[in-house]
Amino acid sequence: MIIAGLKARPVRTTVSILAVALEVTLILVVVGLTSGISNETGKRTEGVGADILLQPPNSSLFLALSNTTMPAALGDKVRALPGIKAVSPVQTIVNSSAGLEIIYGIDPDTFNAISDGFIWHKGRLFKNADEVVVDDIYARAKNVTVGDTVELVNHQFKVSGIVEHGKGARLFVSLKTAQDMTGQNGKASLFFVKLSDPDRIEPGIAEIKQLLQGYNVIPLKEYAKLMMSNSMPALDAFISTVVFVALCIGVLVIFLSMYTTITERTREIGILRSLGASKRFIVILIFQESAALCLFGVLIGIIDSFLIARGVQAVFPTLTVLITPDWIARASVFAILSGIVGSLYPSLKAAKQDPVEALAYE
Known about the structure:
By secondary structure, this protein is an alpha+beta fold. It is about 55% helix and about 15% strand. Strands 1, 3, 4, 5, 6, 7, 8, 9, 11 and 12 form a ten-stranded mixed β-sheet that branches.
């Protein structure tokens, strides 16, 4: 009976299924994109190879949103602490013309001491102020190679080398160049700190905090976790808003579909009631049809989300859409919930219909 009811109105059924699929896809793609960018950025930052990240007071975990700096000379004070193997200052630049693309201004010697050096695909390290090193993903996304010119923050740079991705940023210039471009001479946005004994992270953090009170001192192995939405209130609020909007879409579509279905099937409901069908049977029947629509929509939405994720990755290699089982389950529950809420009033309206009046309905 449920399948027959859905087949009887194929256009409405198809539109309802696609609307639920849109709800699921919207949740999974938007959440997957924000989570993917955060997670991928966190993993690249961890991939630098440092043990501790030192930032100025009141800095954001999102390096692109943090414009605070500190004297580069602080690196010498940290380096003098016991158990510190290397300290590397980094001046970050945000290339706003490309979204929130981060450029690292680095000192090659100290950065190599932290990261054990780049893995080179081709070319060499920058030697001049107008040269930049890019990673392989950026080179593929922008279709550039060694010798090509790229525009970054209204400056023309020549690509001097291409390295393996995963060492913090996707673009690297000299520390002096970054300081000149930002007008922060003698400053650094952050320090990467490497310990002689990686097992002494907690004591190392305590010593740095005692030396530089008020500064952000973060164990780098936990950076990716901290970047996820549950530790970022603004991002969490954004995701909650998207989920709420998607849920509203699902509720309204299911409500409209079920309400018009009840109106068109008034005589059918009257026949069922005259044959002895209880109000409870009618309510359950409507709920089952709504659940069937939602289940088909969820399945299509999940498939569409993975296809979109692959498409985004193919077109924009620097973007990552992270679709997790956890959010697949949540999106599915939200879709089923929207079906229940959307079909509640129509099902009660159908159950209240008088059999005699329903049979006389034209």
